[in-house]
């Protein structure tokens, strides 16, 4: 009886371990960085490649339909301010979807960090994953040399100047109102 109980407990423990086991992301090795970049820049697949540098401004979880229909997947939708573009359409803001964690091959983006992103446009969304050459911009020096000059660079100076001028104008307006409200003449 004691041996049966021990055997039963062992089976339950092993089953619990197997049920909670998550399988890590397994990227197929073999292509060099240069081959990855050449593959990303050519446009002969059914999905269009996008290669850009940008800063993450937000990350939110979204539901995405699966194939076959009926199941939904939770994905991270990462929003970027695009700074430079090597492939794709120029747009100041762009969103890219990835799995929510590295175990499911999701890329671990962080808000406020700059990245060189390799993505594919698929089912009306941009997607990337841990197995793509995507990386933080600070670690992308070799990529940037291999990519060459971008086809489009966003000039943020006009936007910055507009923000500064708007802030100064609002400050002057508030100061005048404050002085009038407190009995000071302008």
Textual characterization of the structure:
The model is unreliable at 14-22 (pLDDT under 50). Helix content is 32%, strand content 30%. The chain is α+β, with helices and mostly antiparallel strands and 186 residues long. Strands 1, 2, 3, 4, 5, 6 and 7 form a 7-stranded antiparallel β-sheet that branches. The radius of gyration is 25 Å and the shape is extended.
Apparent shape: extended
Distance between the termini: 96 Å
Instruction: Sketch the major β-sheet.
Output: 7 strands, antiparallel
Count every beta strand, where a strand is a DSSP E run of 2 or more residues. Answer: 7
Strand content: 25-35%
The tally of helices reads 4
* Mean of all residue-level pLDDT scores: 79
- Detail the poorly predicted runs: 14-22
Percent helix: 25-40%
**Oligomer description:** single chain
Output the structural class. Answer: alpha+beta
Kindly list the characteristics that best describe this protein.
single chain, 186 residues, alpha+beta, 4 helices, seven-stranded antiparallel β-sheet, 32% helix
């Amino acid at each position: 009886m004691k041996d049966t109980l021990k055997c039963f407990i062992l089976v339950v423990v092993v089953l619990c371990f197997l049920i909670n086991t998550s399988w890590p992301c397994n990227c197929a090795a073999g292509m060099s960085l240069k081959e990855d970049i050449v593959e990303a820049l050519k446009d002969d697949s059914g999905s269009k490649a996008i290669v850009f540098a940008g800063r993450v401004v937000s990350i939110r979880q979204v539901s995405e339909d699966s194939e076959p229909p009926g199941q939904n997947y939770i994905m991270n939708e990462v929003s970027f301010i695009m700074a430079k573009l090597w492939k794709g359409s120029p747009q100041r803001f762009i969103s890219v979807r990835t799995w929510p964690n590295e175990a499911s091959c999701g890329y671990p983006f962080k808000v406020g960090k700059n990245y060189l992103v390799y993505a594919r446009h698929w089912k009306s969304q941009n997607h990337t994953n841990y197995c793509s050459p995507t990386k933080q911009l600070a670690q992308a020096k070799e990529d940037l040399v291999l990519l060459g000059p971008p086809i489009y660079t966003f000039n943020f100076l006009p936007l910055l100047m507009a923000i500064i001028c708007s802030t100064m104008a609002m400050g002057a307006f508030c100061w005048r109102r404050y002085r009038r409200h407190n009995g000071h003449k302008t």
